Amino acid sequence: MKLTYLDWTIMVIYFVFVLGVGFALKRYMKTSTDFFLSGRSMPAWITGLAFISANLGAQEVIGMGASGAKYGIATSHFYWIGAIPAMAFVGVFMMPFYYGSRARSVPEYLKLRFDEKTRGFNAISFAVMTVLSSGISLYAMGLLLQTLLGWDFSFSILAAALIVLVYVFLGGLTSAIYNEVLRNNYAAEYGNNGGALIKLSRFCMLLLIRAEEITFPAN
After folding, report:
1. Residue 193 pLDDT > 80
2. Among residues 96, 112, 136, 154, which is most buried (max CB within 10 A)?
3. What span, in angstroms and rounded, lies between the C-alpha atoms of 137 and 161?
4. Model's pTM, two decimal places?
5. Residue 68 host element (H or E)
6. Do the beta carbons of residue 166 and residue 159 sit within 8 Å?
7. Which residues contact 115 (CB under 8 A, 6 or more apart)?
């Protein structure tokens, strides 16, 4: 796939806007509550949109597409049976406890509920999981851009990591949430003409057709 000047222009505008969100929100980051919890003032519907968008990344595009090619429609049961009930359980039963405790994170809540050892164990295990998961996401995204656009694998990973680092460092959780909502609105607008599901299906089919062309970089 070869990008035209219009494609590059749209892409540059998008990245400038993404970074601009971080710079615009920087002046509001005065305390740790502002940075980590958006000042506890973020509307629920915006948080919900950001949560949905955060679950539509490179892992889902490549992983779910590959699972669909191997197992068929049964892949959807991962969400219907596994992910969706778990999300509903956390939202209905667990979030009231977290919110009521005024804790800024799950490890902090566990410290309030149990002790420092429990908090430390959860914090370390969650940090390891986050690093590994982020690495997989960046790796999958690098393969995606390399396959579809012909971009250099290492450059794709470094550029994406740098952009995310900058806007999160500047605007904290608020910046991350608004950029996720921006991506969600872009996906919805993209699907207005012809339907988002149809276009997403076409995109996944393109991935499956070109799956044999994906090559893993040598160590």
Report:
1. no
2. 136
3. 10
4. 0.69
5. helix 65-71
6. no
7. none
